[in-house]
Every structure is written in structure tokens, then in C-alpha cells.
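Quick bug: Oxidoreductase output formatted oddly.
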Amino acid sequence: MNEELLNVVVRKRVLQGDGVVVLDLTRADGSLLPAFAAGAHVDIHLAPGLVRQYSLCSNPSDVSCYRLGVLKDPASRGGSVSVHDILVEGREVQISAPRNLFPLADNAQRSVLLGGGIGITPMIAMAYALHERGEAFELHYCGRSRRSSAFLQELQDAPFAQHVVTHFDDEAPEQKLDLAKVLGAGTAGVHMYTCGPSGFMDWVIGGARAQGYAEDHIHKEYFQVEVDASGASFEVVAARSGKTVEIAEGQSILDALAKVGIKIEKSCEQGVCGTCLCDVLEGEPDHRDVYLTDEEKAGNDQILVCCSRAKSKTLVLDI
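Here's what came back:
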């Protein structure tokens, strides 16, 4: 992807909760930023080879700035630590134009937004958009404690504050999230959106399925997953490059291709962002990403080479 990058500057930086930095980014030349839809993210180019995706949590109707919230992750692979260390007020940085892999559905009768921890960020933008569209929704924010949670003041002051409900692990039992009650029956007009730690999301998604939600009414965005590299070795043929490489157990297709001189653009390396998506010409992928939809996976014509493997002995890729 050879996209044009945007030059932005950190106009405001505030630490909130426990290890969350909230950044307001504006265009360095003072012009308006590109429009975005709720659920979108941007890629931040922090250093050569260090690109990370963060959800936009500002009001989509205001493109004078983009707001991000980034948790300093103790298990960081360099992204969140770099954000906290180098993105000080006045610092210029390059970002991509917004991309949206987590859009709001059209014509929903009711939307249920469920954010866990820093997963609240895309939900805030969604709440602004749904409020301005005059659509029925609820925003449920789950966290370990009030003290550790960011964005509480903004949510309290927001024009949609009456639709926000908070749930904290260390507070009274009666305020904790009753998932079945909040979701209700999975009728045709109800859509559910969730983002947060994988355990939280698995619980929410399982609850939605138990309530009868159709798969295309369950909307999810993962920001971190565990990559499973287990499985037998297989062969990848790079059709355009004229090279064949053996992928060993525990090795990614991405790394094996790099060793024979085939460089694929990468970013998250966890099957979340879609940067390393390649077309499949022959063979059957073993999809292990959370980027492709179930329908796209069933088509078996695309693969994320950072994490997925093969069910067939050979994959032929259009690279």
C-alpha cells in the first residue's frame, strides 16, 4: 500500500485513568482533516517499520482534529510505549487517512455498544454518530475501576450522556453488566458492537449468540490477539516472483517469504489490521485472523500471511 500520508501535530496530550494517553491531532498546516465514519482507525508511523493502528474516538462531525486514546501496554511490542514516549505536544508525526473495518450498520432499530477498557475508544465515535442520526442506542463501558478508566468526564458531559452506563469490577454488584438483559433478544433490527480485551469480547460475542443474534448483527473489533503458529509444515508458491518456500511449524508465511527476498508490507503481525492481505490462487488457507469476515474466509481467495497457515500441502499466492 503506497498511500499518501498525512502530516499531523500533537496539539493536546492528556493522561487519563491508569496509563491512557489521550491525543488530539491536527493537520500541521492548519487545514481540515479528511472526513471519517464512526469505527474508523488510523495508522500511526512511529518509526521506520513501526506502524500501529488506533481507533478514532472523536466526534466524526468535527474534522478539525482526530482524537486517539492509547493504553500503555506492559506487553507492548513497541507501539504503545513509543506513543507514550515520543508523542508529546508539538511533535509532528505521519498518519494514514482513516480506514474503517468496523462500521455502523445502516437502518438499525437499536444499537448496543459494549466497550471493555481501552476498547471504549471506537464506541465513543459511534455514540456521537448515532446521537446525531437520532437512532436508539446504549453505550456500556466496562472497566476494572473508575480510577483506572479514561474518558469518564467526556462521556459524562457528552450530548448522549443519558445513553451511557458504566460498569466497574470493584463497585456494587448491582451495577455490574447483566449481559443477557442488556442485549435482549437478537431480533432483526438490533445490532451489537464490541471492542476490548479478547476475553471480554469472547464473553460478549458468546452472549450475543446465546441471545439469538445473527452473525451479521454481531460487530467486533479486536486490538490484540494471540497468534497460533502451530501446525504441520506446508509449501507456498509465490506465483509472480517465481519462488517456492517451505513454511515450518511455528514459522509465519510472512517471515519465510522475507528470507527468500519477498517483502510483504506488515503492521500488527496478529491478523488484526489486514495490511499483509494477499490473494490466493490455489490451495486452501487455514484462516487464523480476526480481520476477514466468515464469508470472506469461506471464499478461500485471500489470506493474511502474518498469522494464517494452510490446510492443503501447497498454497499458491499472487505475489
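Actually, after a second look the formatting is fine. The chain has a mean pLDDT of 93. Closing.
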